[in-house]
Amino acid sequence: MDAILRCCGTDRGRALDEAQATELAELFKALADPARVRLLSIVATSEGGEACACDLVEPLGRAQPTVSHHLSVLVDAGILEREKRGRWAWYRVVPERLASIRASLDATDPAPTA
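Request: output the structure for the sequence above.
Response:
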């Protein structure tokens, strides 16, 4: 009986519902490209927490239209936000969106036991 409880305990956390799973899958889809993960990392670690699009092409080693596409995917997913300043776009991480990803994943973990 103890082996069954260890293997199949009742405290397994909370499963995602259909809407949560769909939202999380869309976020994962946006992050499923190494270039987008790198862009997110570069923006998140930039001085002041934001980066100009003009400064993202060289570190990524991709053409400007490709970088713009990847940034648009991250903006559309709500992971980054864009602000136009003159002729340049500036990007910053949306902390609430990353927190919601973390919370969704944490909700599926069982509660720590003492």
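The first helix runs from residue 2 to 7.
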